[in-house]
Amino acid sequence: MRSANFLKENNARHLWHPMANAGEMLAHPPKIITASKGVEITDVDGHTVLDAVGGLWNVNLGYSCEPVKKAIRDQLDDLPYYSTFRGTSNAPVIELSFELADFFKPDGLTRSFFTSGGSDSVETALRLARQYHKLKGQPERTKYFALKKGYHGTHFGGASVNGNANFRRAYEPLLPGVFHLPAPFPYRNPFSTTDGVVIAQSIANLFEDEIAFQGADTIAAFIIEPVLGAGGVIVPDESFMPLMRSICDKYGILMIADEVITAFGRTGAWSGSRLWGVQPDMACTAKAITNAYYPFGAVMINEKLTEVFETSKSPLASIGHGYTYSGHPVGAAAALATLAETKRLNVADNAAARGLELMAGLEALKAQHELVGDVRGKGLMCAVELVSDRTKQSAAAKDVVQKVQDVAYAHGVMVRTSGANIILSPPLVITAADVKKIVAALDAGLSGAIG
After folding, report:
1. With DSSP H G I counted as helix, E B as strand and the rest as coil, what are the percentages for the chain, rounded to 5?
2. Is 263:289 a contact under the CB 8 Å cutoff?
3. Which residues of the chain have pLDDT under 50?
């Protein structure tokens, strides 16, 4: 690696960062992360902090998971790449498809379609939904429903079902035939209530009303994050996802669970769908599937779809979709090792236990700091929403949010900001002591922001 001075001089000068303003990155260069160990990262100046972001919701097993690193090294020696397009396959991807079918069996998902990441997985699921209905003799089922504040990646399909204007406005017009329902958000919703059951039923009523207006025979799928992530960690009432599942079943609409964040234990359950007792028709996965060590994803598919695709004689049954790196042998080897470690360490139980401790700490911060309007979370995905006025629920200023992040970093913890939210998604292997460190750093950040 070149010198620290070289890195600093060229920081953001020759690349555009995703999800950032290019000019702002030049004016305020991003932190340069150069090393990691366990659940900690170190920057170019040698400052080491606990990574309460977990990379980007995806380093579930931490940065020192040797079995995954070894699997990658070994597979690079054996077979660094070969295509899985029609006619060829590879050993790791066959084994992985078997293991994932077993892992997701409680979710009713028995087939895999491999991708390069979360956005790819969402795009694949949206396409397969339309194709399924064509094979069923209902070609007019092309529309999609989604939730406001939902996040589903950045491909045109995913951006179209995204429920946040920040990911849409600059790229419109997007796909036609996409409709959004309110988020199941007790803190901010159009129903003038904080009762999660009432909110869930109100959204369900709107869904059925829209289905009646649009025509059920024009709707392909409803896509949902079991717990909304990038939109601010919105935890729905336990009745919500089952209620939406029942409506989808009633009208022949497919349910796509976007599990890119929630699969593999982050919520304290092995999948977000399983958390709420729901079996989706498809589930989009990525992120933690390889512990972030290799770009990889998988769409898991229910038997309802496999029966149609695998028995149809229609020329439309051929899947005319895929990626150069679908089923990459190195990614598949990484995923196999990750899945084995994920189960061996039982990270879902640790996420549940540490999540309760973290939420208790965040509630205490809310009681102590007027800057905190709301805290919410499930397992180890949590958010602290900052406000300038609790009564009006007005968002805190951007510089205030940034100050919280900066001071927390100085006190040894990396957190992520999204609008007025502080997002926490640490590795699922953190300890109770790590939780205390996160809460203490946030306490310092909240105090420093108004000091």
Report:
1. 45, 20, 40
2. yes
3. none
Looking at the structure, tell me whether residues 331 and 358 fall in a common domain.
no
Sign of torsion, CA 162 164 165 166? negative
Q: Which DSSP state fits 106?
A: G
Concatenating the DSSP letter of every residue in 238-296 gives TTHHHHHHHHHHHHT-EEEEE-TTTTTTTTSSSSHHHHTT---SEEEE-GGGGTTSS--
Which own/partner pairs from 189-195 qualify as long-range (CB within 8 Å, at least 24 positions apart)? none
* Residue 22: inside a domain: no
What are φ and ψ of residue 243, in 5° steps? Answer: -65, -45
Is 18 a member of any domain? no
CATH of the domain at 183: 3.40.640.10
pLDDT of 450 reads 84
Considering the domain architecture, whether residues 268 and 386 belong to the same structural domain is answered as no
Kindly report the pTM of this predicted structure.
Answer: 0.97
- Sequence letter at residue 212: A
Nearest CA-CA partner of 213 in 205, 201, 225, 221: 205
Q: What are phi and psi of 157, to 5 degrees?
A: -65, -50
Distance CA 53, CA 423 (A): 7
CA 392 – CA 335 distance, rounded (Å): 46
Look up the domain containing 300 and give its range: 68-344
- Split into its structural domains, the chain has a count of 2
